[in-house]
Structures are given as C-alpha cells and as structure tokens.
Amino acid sequence: MQLKPNAYRLNETVKGVETMTRFALAVLALASGVYTYLGVRGILDGSASFVFFAAIIYSAAVSVAIYAFWSFMLRFVPLVTSGTQRIGLFLTMAVGCCMIIAMSSWLNAAALAGSAATEQHLAVTLQGYAEDLDKAHSNALAAQSLLPDVQRAAERFSGLAADERESGALTGTTGSGSVVQLLTQMGTQMTQLGTTITGSRDEVASLFEQGSARLASMRELVSTPGAIEPRADSFQTEAVQLSAIIAALQQTDVAASVKRAAADLSAGFIAPVANGQSADLVNRQDQVMETVRASVAAQSAALSAAADEILATPAVEQRRYVPLSSAEAVIRYWQDFIPSWAGAISIDLLPVVLVLVLMIVHDAMRKDSESLEEAENITAAEMLRALALYRKMEAAGVVLPQPLTTPAEPEVDDPVTVEEVAVVTPDDATVTSIDSASRKRTEGPRPA
C-alpha cells in the first residue's frame, strides 16, 4: 500500500522501535520476576533448598506470564478498530492487570519495603507497650493518692489519744482509759494502712524501672540497622518480659486493699468496755466512744469512696505481640509506603503506556491512509505486472503515444474489426495491422 509521507514515516518508526519494545518488555518482566522472587522467599517456610526452588519457579512463571500477556496486548489492541471489540480488549487488559497485581505487584512491594514495613510494625507495637506501661504505672500510683488521707486520719486519732491521756480533752478526766485505748487502736490501724500504701510505692518504682529498661532495649532493636529477622525475634522476647512487668504493676495496686481495710474499720469496730471509776465517767466514756465510732464510720466511707474511684479506672488489657512477615507488614501499613507500592505496580503495568501509544499511532496511520485517492492505490502484484509489460513493449520497440489532447473520432468508411489493432510507430507514422486472433495470449509481441 502506497502511503503519504506522514503515514509512511509512522509505519517505519513503528517497525524501528519494535525491537526496542520487545527488549523493554523483557527487562520489565525480568525485573518483576526478580523482586517477586525476593518477596516470595520472605514468606515461604521450609528448608533452604525448598524455599529457593519454589521462589525461582514462581518468579519465572510470573515473568513469562507478564511477557506473554503484554506481547498479546501490544500486537492485538492497536490493530482492532471496532469499538465493541476494542472495549472487550480493554476489559480483558483490566482483568489481566488485576491478576498481575495479585500475583506479583504486592510481592514486589514486599521486596522493596518489607524491612521498613516490619520496622514500622515494631515501632507501632513499641508505642503500644510504652502506653500500657505508663497507664499501668499511673493506675498503681493512683492508690498513693489515698496515703495523705490515711496519714491524716492516723495522726488525728493518735493526737486525740494523746490529748485525752494528758489533759482529758474528751472525757474531762486524764489518764489512759477506754477512750484512750480506742483512739490508740484506730490510730494504729490507720498507720498500718499507710505503711501498706507506702510499701507498695517502692515496689511500683522498681517495676517501672524494669519496664523502662525493657522499653529502651526494644527501642534499640527497632532503630539498629541490620537484618530485620533477628531483631524481630529479640523484640518478641523483650515484649514477653515487658508484658509480665505490666501485669505485675497491676497486681501492686493497693486500692482494693485500702477499700477492704476501710470497710473493716467501720464493720469491725469494737469499742472497749468503759472502765471509769464512777458512773458519770463511764457515761462520758460511752458518749466519747460513740462519737469515735461515728468518726471512724465517716472516715471509712470516705476512704471506700476514694478507693472506688481508683478501682473504676479501666485496667490495662494484656497486649500480645504478633509477628508479621514482610508481605503482611507491607499490606497492613500500605499507607506509609505508597511510593514503594507505586514503584512495584509501575514495573508490572508500565506496558499499558506502550499499548496506548501504539494504538494511537496505528489510528493515525489508518486515518492518513484513508485520505489517499483510489487512483493512487495499487497492489504490488499489479505494479510488477505493469513493469513487466512495459519492459516487453520496450524490447519489442512498441511505443504507445500519450496525446496531449483528446483526439477526435476519425471518420472512416469501414470500421475496424475487433480482430485488428492499430499500432502507430513514431518513425514512419504508418499503421501496422496485428491479427490478434492468429496468436495466443501467452505469446510475446510480434516485431514491428
């Protein structure tokens, strides 16, 4: 087909870049296969030889599939002109792209960003453990807020007992009687409760220090360069130890113990028998002990309410570290690795651009070819037959003149029969009659 200059140049350019297109497609398929191999090797379990051969076979299958698929698309899509057929090919190409992403692209992303995604998982888990440790520590220290109230109550009962002993501030009679004994008893119980709360403070501080040391080791494992697998294993070991420390911190919470002790103050209140020497003193001792009972009940209610507020705080749920493979980490934290995902998908789907370019170029060539006139269209076979006939006519010395103007019809008396052909030679301008019926079609021209 004879083409106009622009269509001809486009056709020649397409032929020129065909080798480059195949080479580029092969390189892209090979690159995808290599990164697929790296991604598969990170998620397979088994012996080293099994993992190696399984990853090689899978990556080779992916490379062949990608090369074959895009070879078909590059050859067929540009040649299809029907709208329905082209839509069908586009749908087929979309399905193929989804399958390529499913079998290759996510593994490529795992190979490109697998280690970074695993480190991201370790960092997120570390942050969760740090929050749990701080929360458990805060809950444990919340019971320490009851200590000032307990100490103040202990000092109050001890002070009243001293005043009653020295000056008879409550009964009006000095000495160590039933009232002094009761107040001393309440002060001692409060002091013991305060000692319990104070003792837990040291244990809480020790556990929090151990947990902070574990967190420091885990941070070092996250930030240290090197292979991620051994670091992840060590991180898991540290996470187990830290979980035990957090659980121990929750067990040191003395809020429940304070609540039980406060309840015992009121429910287990035992007043001694008044031992006054006179009925009036006995009566006064009974009145004071009843007042002490009411005061102890009020103090018990206040401590119980404060302990309930502390106990209402949600406990720290036990966190369990779940190790992830590089592929699983890339999928879970895909939003943090969008550039890696874009590169992994582009390796597999870049031939889409080549398919679209070839489709546009072929459409342009068809448009230019349609603009040719019918007189300018000639097949190669017709061209060869015309050239052969022209050479034979030149060899026979026969020349067909091409008149500049349209000749008028000659007036002849006898019309020429169809069996004769008039041939005009340029030398003598004579007419030679050729008997076409006396020779076969396959014979060559007769000499003039």
Automatic annotation (TrEMBL):
Keyword Repressor recorded: no
Positions with biased composition (Basic and acidic residues): 437-448
Region annotation (Disordered) ranges: 428-448
Keyword Ion transport among record annotations: no
This protein's UniProt keywords: Membrane, Transmembrane, Transmembrane helix
Stretches that traverse the bilayer: 20-38, 50-74, 86-107, 341-361
Protein name: DUF4407 domain-containing protein
Species for this entry: Devosia epidermidihirudinis
